[in-house]
Amino acid sequence: MASKLDLSRWNGPAVILASTAVAGVAGYVVMLVAPAVMAVGDYADFTVYWSTVYLITASLLAIQNEVSRAARERLAGQAGSRRSVLRFTVIAGALVALLGAGVAIALGPTLFGSEWSLFVAPILVGAGGYVVLAVVMGMLFGVRRWAWGAAIGAGDAVLRLIGVVPAMALGAPAVVIAWLVVIPFSLVPIGIWLLARRRIGGVIAFDVDYRGLARNILITLPGAAAAALLVTGLPVLIRAAGGTDALAVAPLFLAITLGRAPVVMVATSLQGYLIVRMRDGEHGLRRLAAVIAAGVGAVLVIAVVAGLIGPWLIEVLLHPGFAVDGVTIGVVVASGGLVGAMFAVAAALIARGRHGWQSAGWIVAAVVTAGALAMGEWWPLSERTLVALVAGPVVGLGVFAIGLARPRRVPS
């Protein structure tokens, strides 16, 4: 009889969506508490730090997705791959940590002001720690242990909530909050793996060696980084585009953070699941198209409702200083549906081995978004932002469609 803790065969979409709901609520609480207890300027600075951390970590979704695609249960007589995975994780973690520190050093003065040096170490540790999360979650999804993988997503968000919200409420220094944001990235996956590994039959094997794994990740990494700019990096892009007036950008940051998060979180959390199902031929393009159409339609309805009641909710529940008009909120929510559609179509491209087209779509979308934001001071930043939110994903989806439509190459 299976142990009560054997979560390995639980239904995939159900547990992933449940985990997403838990993580989403936890993240929402953090995002709602921040403007309620912080001054407008401090909130803007916190949002930029949060965005920077998740810009780096969201880029590492390439690791999770490729590990999910490559990982399978070891067959009888098949060699295991623990050493290769461990070697890959250590090397990748060290390189990513150094990259994160480099980003913090290069952009710190612009993003974090005079105390930028205090944030280098947390970003370094967070970036390296997230590699552990990406590898462990990817392995668990790859061998269809959906619940164990989902537990990482939920546990990470809940532990962050437990640490960050009380610290904010007590007025803790910014550097303390910075550390509390990144610590869960490594603690939670290590703990879950220690629980899960004894309940997973056999050793996890990969269809490529760790060099091949690294090569595929490097192909998709630029696309993942571009996707991260669209999902979590917008506050960074807006500040870089001249949005330094905290009173002006803080309401826009709030609308983007809260308005797009539900749809985008669901899409990103389900991407690994979709990759595995389409890799194994269990989901076709027609079914995927139907799901995307239904999802985008639902989001458009939600966008209209959000545009009507959102300004009142923000002003009453949070602070009058965060007033946002209904059009802005509606466009922000609708753009989240477009980004969610990109994640779903990208899963089909990855499952079919079309990593280059997947990266190209995200890169083009990010370039269009950044280009719209950088148009110049003659065009109000708020209007530039709304155009950028929509134009980037629309063009990116066009690139994805071309990639899916091209015929597969038949080996000679």
Biggest β-sheet strands, sense, barrel: 2 strands, antiparallel
Q: List the total number of helices.
A: 15
Total DSSP E strands: 2
Helix-strand topology string:
HHHEHHHHHEHHHHHHH
Structural class, from secondary structure content? Answer: mainly alpha
Indicate the proportion of strand residues.
under 5%
Number of domains: 1
Radius of gyration based on Cα positions: 21 Å
Which runs of at least 5 residues are low in confidence (pLDDT < 50)? 1-5
The helix content is over 70%
Q: End-to-end distance, in Å? A: 49 Å
Q: Which term fits the overall shape?
A: globular
Q: Strands of the biggest beta sheet: in what spatial order?
A: 1-2
Give the integer mean of the pLDDT values: 81
Structure description:
The protein has about 400 residues and is an all-alpha fold. The chain has one domain (about 10-405). The protein is built from 15 helices and two strands. Residues about 1-5 have low confidence and may be disordered.
